[in-house]
């Protein structure tokens, strides 16, 4: 069973910590703010008040024995960076850090962060895609220029099979799943027909996905 240490208990950090704890993982939650620590104490394995930039304090807490560290100390960029550096020097195998923007993300990667996340930016992108096309329910960036979208079947798709629609050959995208009410077809093939109200999960290049979204026009 993996053990997690979560440092910085704002909305993001506490959400990560309590979700892991609810899934029965061992979670050590750390913050320098006493109220934040108290607020989470009965939801995680251990909650401790400490300064995340104090190497000795992190050593004493046995942080080096954890498999994964999640760092989210808000807009305090220098603390984010220093803490990440200490965790990697203590040889924590996997350190994930929440960054406010790409520039700080770059620095975090340079000091050893194994993964940098930008939840505010990513959620903004997803919401915007949803607003731009009313049939797009969700968008996830999968790699630069590639994404996964969930769309509601457009009128032109209804009653047609994947073969009829020639998604692969025409749009160079793959339909990964078709959701119909409660039913999920996770390996749709050429003969599967799209019905009204179906939701399609499609992977492809962003420009191809854009074409697909406008398939009705
Ligand atoms: P949110 O998801 O709420 O936006 P956030 O990480 O952006 O979260 P904050 O609400 O500022 O932002 O949360 C940062 C947390 O990190 C606070 O609880 C703060 O007490 C804690 N923190 C800041 N500096 C340190 C530090 N040096 N050591 C430990 N905790 C710290
Ligand atoms: P291909 O070489 O494109 O895989 P195929 O004849 O081997 O073609 P079939 O599984 O028979 O593949 O599908 C015929 C056509 O139906 C495909 O070329 C493609 O346009 C479409 N198709 C089938 N399954 C999917 C899918 N999951 N997503 C998108 N298009 C599909
Ligand atoms: Ca914030």
Describe the structure.
This protein has nine helices and eleven strands. The strands form two sheets. A six-stranded parallel sheet has the order 3-2-1-4-5-6, sandwiched between helices. A five-stranded antiparallel sheet has the order 7-8-11-9-10. It is 36% helix and 27% strand. The chain has 217 residues and is of the alpha/beta class. The protein has two domains: 3-117, 3-Layer(aba) Sandwich (Rossmann fold); 122-214, Regulator of K+ conductance, C-terminal domain (Alpha-Beta Plaits, 2-Layer Sandwich). The protein has helices at residues 11-22, 34-40, 55-60, 77-89, 102-110, 119-132, 162-165, 167-171, 206-213; strands spanning 3-7, 26-31, 46-49, 68-71, 94-98, 115-117, 136-143, 146-152, 174-180, 183-185, 199-205. Residues 162-163, 166-169, 174-175, 188-190 line the site of one adenosine-5'-triphosphate (ATP).
Structural features:
binds adenosine-5'-triphosphate, binds calcium ion, 2 domains, single chain, Alpha-Beta Plaits, alpha/beta, six-stranded parallel sheet, 9 helices, 36% helix, Rossmann fold, 217 residues, five-stranded antiparallel sheet
Short description:
By secondary structure, this protein is an alpha/beta fold. The chain is built from nine helices and eleven strands.
What is the secondary structure topology, with strand pairs?
Blueprint: E1 3-7, H1 11-22, E2 26-31, H2 34-40, E3 46-49, H3 55-60, E4 68-71, H4 77-89, E5 94-98, H5 102-110, E6 115-117, H6 119-132, E7 136-143, E8 146-152, H7 162-165, H8 167-171, E9 174-180, E10 183-185, E11 199-205, H9 206-213
Parallel strand pairs: 1-2, 1-4, 2-3, 4-5, 5-6
Antiparallel strand pairs: 7-8, 8-11, 9-10, 9-11
One adenosine-5'-triphosphate is lined by residues 8-13, 31-33, 36, 51-53, 72-74, 76, 79.
